Fold:
Amino acid sequence: MMKVSQGNNSAKLSRALLGGVTLCGAALLSAGLGACDRGSCSISNAPKNGAAPLAQTENASMEQVVRTDEEWKQLLTPLQYNVLREKGTERAFSGKYWDAKTPGEYRCAGCGEVLFVSDSKFDSGCGWPSFDKVAAQGKIIESVDGSHGMVRTEVTCAKCGGHLGHLFNDGPTNTGMRYCINSASIELEPDTEGSKPSAKGK
Structure:
């Protein structure tokens, strides 16, 4: 787990989500509207009928995983299917990784692609696993999510298109980013040296 530092360079790295006022994510939690608890979400007059791609595009060199809905249903648990394929959200503090401190790699539960590493994980207090960066460039696609009358940044797996969660620019580390991820969308592969909790983040 990453130790949160006070050096926040978010002013340099923050992303403008089309302007608007911010809302406490606790309101979203009570309404069941997103994978954030204490984060901020922006309201604007942007279209509200789904997600539209941001400037980022898919990694052209990455082999895409394409399956039918029936194949996904056979491969995934009901909760994983709801989150990854139907853009659902697990309840806060209910996922198996929100408080995990085991060193290792977090892979997409749909296709096995490495998306995050434990060194980038930190305790945001929101009830969902939080990371300040992805494992490597091109692993994740960012899209504008205009659902529920809000404007947020949705993050999906670049290899299989599975919904992971949302990205916020209120992270406490020097990246300024908080990837708020559903535990059901990822699987932890512990380091081979053992599974002792990391000293970071304590």
